[in-house]
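Hi C.,

You asked whether I'd gotten around to modeling the 222-residue construct. I have! Everything is below, sequence then structure, no commentary in between.
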Amino acid sequence: MTAGIDTPDRRGRTGLDRHGRGLTGNPRVRIREVELLSSDWYVLRKTTFDYQHSDGHWSREQRETYDRGDGATILLHNTDRRTVLLTRQFRLPAYVNGHPDGMLLETAAGLLDGDSPEEAIRREAAEETGHTVGTVEHVFDVFMSPGSVTERLHFFAAPYDAADTPAGTGGIAAEGEDITIVELSFTEALDRIRNGVIADAKTIMLLQWAALEGPFAQRARG
């Protein structure tokens, strides 16, 4: 008996080795085997599949996929003040891969955890920044690292009222979160992309969207 397959794992999941077996959307791909490597919290699988190349020949391939669920992120902006609201928190993977202190400036974000993308991002904005957002704008949906990670990230934007921004830290302490709220001028945020201080992909994408098409687009061109 294997946890995550025959018996529930620590998150109550079973049948994790069946993911992807019934896919029929691409006739050039035939899933042969799905092996569960780990389900300690997120899920690591090794999938064996046959792939038909563009010249017609078939080859047998294996890929590992990391499944942490889908997520959502939001850029909180104030056009009157020309500011954005970001978070700063420690990210171990960035730290062990060369980031000086592992403290990343980011847009608020989190996993869907069974909610719709809009429900999830309202929850995460409240938990991480203390803001109850009103109308949200859906920007786009993106696979962030499709070579190995299954996650699709849903991008949103919404205005915020600076008067409602709490001081101190945010996040859920019980989950180990220690999040600092950071308000920056939009110009400074773009400068921090250029000088490498902002090095988080989702944050860079939303800030560049805001400059090109979003709330700061016309003023940026002016």
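If it helps when you're writing up: The CA atoms of residues 83 and 201 lie 19 Å apart.

Thanks,
B.
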